[in-house]
Design goal:
Strand order of the largest sheet of chain A: 4-9-10-11-12-13-14-8
Strand content of chain B: 5-15%
Helix content of chain A: 10-25%
Largest sheet of chain A: 8 strands, antiparallel
Family (chain B): Belongs to the PPP phosphatase family.
Number of strands of chain B: 14
Order of helices and strands of chain A: EEEHEEEHHEEHEEEEEHHE
Strand content of chain A: 35-45%
Radius of gyration of chain B: 21 Å
CATH architecture of chain B: 4-Layer Sandwich
GO biological process, one term (chain B): glycogen metabolic process
CATH superfamily of chain B: Metallo-dependent phosphatases
CATH class of chain B: Alpha Beta
Largest interface: A-B, 77 and 74 residues
Strand order of the largest sheet of chain B: 1-5-6-10-12-11
EC number (chain B): 3.1.3.16
Number of strands of chain A: 14
Oligomer: heterodimer
Shape of chain A: globular
Number of domains of chain B: 1
CATH topology of chain B: Purple Acid Phosphatase, chain A, domain 2
Helix content of chain B: 25-40%
Protein name (chain B): Serine/threonine-protein phosphatase
Structural class of chain A: alpha+beta
Radius of gyration of chain A: 22 Å
Catalytic activity (chain B): O-phospho-L-threonyl-[protein] + H2O = L-threonyl-[protein] + phosphate
Order of helices and strands of chain B: HHEEHEHEHHHEEHHEEEHEEEEEHHHH
Largest sheet of chain B: 6 strands, mixed
Chain lengths: ~280, ~350
């Protein structure tokens, strides 16, 4: 089977079996773009926002799926309770002490009573269930629940040559040094199939870990594009306790989403498929 | 043995690490020096102000090339010297030596990363372990962090701090009486100075939705400047694509000095030159060539120094590090197909490419 690698300054990709896989990488958004995106989405934008980066897959049939940061951020919870769901580990202590100081100095704190103001609520962990933007031209090419199509793990375990491999970061925020929220894509294309992993990885120090994975799988020559989504979550304490004792004070394993993923219990998963036939 | 600071500085410029015993001595002496510094250090222009560096040592060398070397140029560093980048040890070593050698001409302000808790997670601890084989050097430097000053005032007109303002601080004198010789606490004025961010969409203070920390608005800035008879606030702490940002009708500037942050953001950086008449000029620069294409060993070190990259980049090779616009080659494949590197590779040996 022939394939052609695509490569220029900012784009990497591959043409294979009627598919075009493209990964575009450029710098973070500039201030103007950030202001526009923030106004549009109604929330502060993550510190490192690769808003123009994307991973896309397109088939000659008209099927097209794209992964981008801003549509993912559009799915971040902005309901009135959204920022109450998770607080940083020391939020209680912070709040209590603050109130104490104000009470003690109430007389000269009069002009500061307005600091009960909280920035408009949003889920500051940037948790998103985004699983790609479907840009297919035909309506039938939407994903629908399936019980017959699955990701062929055995095929993916085979050490077949990887014709194309790429990683792309869509956004990353350190939550003001309280952890990490990062959305990344990975793709590998083999002679017989391809696999994409879109991963939202969240660590809130001393609070919790959370991973939302979306896997896209297609075996060349078939009509099905399979999408498998899963959510995993656990308390920080439980995962930290799994670091080998020999690592001592080194906590860097907790930054490795692959390692954390292997330790996190699955909460839910579902599988869908889209049909390439019109 | 007498400590030869010029020799230390020279070898650091030659990219050579100092011996652990030398770092110990330098840190001890610098602590003594810093102990007598006020929480608010008053200096005079001209001075060149540098924002976050985050262990991007090659870009710091570039800053000296652009802004001039010590002691010909006076420098004010606004904190966040360590973490994320590959060379926090080199960065801290050279800044500490320069401070000790030219105490009146180099000022080091504390940033939120100059903390034990933060450096344990974000790379500095791991880097010290890898480069010195023990945590001693990390202990020397993090003990030194507790002595760094919190703010600087230039010519009584420009207030300089790492993060921003605090609702508990109205006057400079309130900063002067704080006890700063400790780990940065989670709350209180000391935390606010290194953490808070301006919010151009607001007028007053607001509490962050994450449950701790403040943002401050235009009226807060105006009141603080008026009360203290100053005309500008200068801070770092926030990444921006252009390398600097000016807010609130030219009353506040953010200066960011780590170009192509984390070797992938593709952003510009700047240093801010403050002249004798108070004029401000942002000198904008791009990443040093060494930043753009870390060598294979650097890539390897990045894995060690920054675990966040480990899961993403380990084993992919040097060029995969550069995700930013400045990196011409952002895919591990280079000119050849990845299959030629990995063809027939044992699945268990290469979990990065063979992810599931």
């Amino acid at each position: 089977m022939t394939h052609k690698l695509i490569k220029d300054k900012q784009t990497n990709g591959i043409d294979i079996q009627g598919w075009t896989v493209l990964s575009y990488k450029t710098s973070i958004l500039n201030s103007q773009e950030i202001d526009a995106a923030s106004a549009d989405l109604g929330i502060p934008i993550p510190e490192m926002i690769f808003g123009n980066n994307f991973l896309s897959i397109e088939h000659t049939s008209g099927f097209k799926l794209e992964f981008k940061a801003l549509p993912a951020l559009a799915m971040v919870d902005q309901s009135s309770k959204s920022s109450d769901l998770i607080k940083v580990s020391y939020a209680r202590e912070w709040f209590d002490k603050r109130r104490l100081v104000y009470n003690q100095q109430a007389s000269n704190m009069v002009n500061q009573e307005h600091i009960t103001d909280v920035v408009k609520p949003y889920d500051w962990t940037y948790t998103t269930k985004y699983n790609g933007t479907n840009l297919s031209v035909h309506e039938k090419m939407q994903f629908t629940p399936t019980t017959t199509e699955i990701i062929d793990i055995e095929q993916l375990r085979r050490p077949d040559p990887i014709l194309f491999y790429d990683e792309n970061i869509l956004f990353e925020d350190e939550l003001a040094d309280n952890g990490t929220a990062v959305l990344t894509t990975k793709v590998r294309v083999m002679p017989s199939c391809f696999l994409i992993l879109l991963r939202f990885f969240l660590r809130v120090d001393d609070v919790l870990f959370r991973i939302h994975d979306t896997r896209i799988y297609h075996r060349f020559g078939t009509n099905a594009v399979v999408r498998e989504c899963s959510t995993r979550e656990s308390s920080y304490k439980e995962i930290r306790a799994k670091i080998p004792r020999s690592n001592g004070e080194d906590l860097s394993l907790l930054l490795d989403s692959n390692w954390v993923s292997s330790q996190l219990p699955e909460q839910s998963s579902w599988t869908e498929a889209a049909n390439l036939e019109q | 043995m007498v400590l030869d600071l010029d020799a230390c500085i020279n070898s650091l410029f030659q990219r050579q690490l100092l011996a652990e015993s030398v770092i110990k001595e330098i840190c001890e002496k610098t602590k003594e020096l810093l102990m007598s510094e006020s929480n608010v250090v008053h200096i005079k222009a001209p001075v060149t102000v540098v924002g976050d560096i985050h262990g991007q040592f090659y870009d710091l060398l570039e800053i000296f090339k652009i802004g001039g070397y010590c002691p010909d140029t006076n420098y004010l560093f606004l904190g966040d010297y360590v973490d994320r980048g590959l060379y926090s040890v080199e960065t801290m070593s050279i800044l500490t030596c320069l401070k000790l050698r030219y105490p009146e001409r180099v000022q080091l302000v504390r940033g939120n990363h100059e903390s034990r808790a933060v450096t344990q997670t974000y790379g500095f601890y791991t880097e010290c372990m890898k480069k010195y084989g023990s945590a001693q050097v990390w202990h020397y430097f993090t003990d030194l962090f507790d002595y760094l000053t919190l703010s600087v005032v230039i010519d009584n007109m420009i207030f300089c701090v790492h993060g921003g303002l605090s609702p508990s601080i109205h006057t400079i004198d309130q900063i002067k009486v704080m006890d700063r010789f400790k780990e940065i606490p989670h709350e209180g004025p000391m935390a606010d100075l290194v953490w808070s961010d301006p919010d151009p969409g607001r007028e007053e203070f607001a509490v962050s939705p994450r449950g701790a920390g403040y943002t401050f608005g235009s009226l807060v800035v105006e009141k603080f400047l008026h009360e203290n008879g100053m005309d500008h606030i200068l801070r770092a702490h926030q990444l921006c694509m252009e390398g600097f940002q000016v807010l609130f009708d030219d009353q506040l500037s953010t200066v960011w000095s780590a170009p192509n942050y984390c070797y992938r953001c593709g952003n510009l950086a700047s240093i801010l030159e403050v002249g004798v008449a108070g004029e401000r000029h942002f000198n904008v620069f791009e990443a040093a060539p060494e930043n753009e294409r870390p060598s294979a060993t650097q890539a390897q070190r990045s894995v060690l120094a920054n675990g966040a990259s480990a899961g993403l980049f380990a084993g992919v090779g040097a060029s995969a590090i550069g995700n930013g616009a400045n990196s011409g080659s952002s895919n591990g494949s280079g000119g050849t197909s990845v299959s030629s590197i990995n063809g027939g590779a044992d699945f268990t040996q290469d979990p990065i490419h063979y992810f599931l």
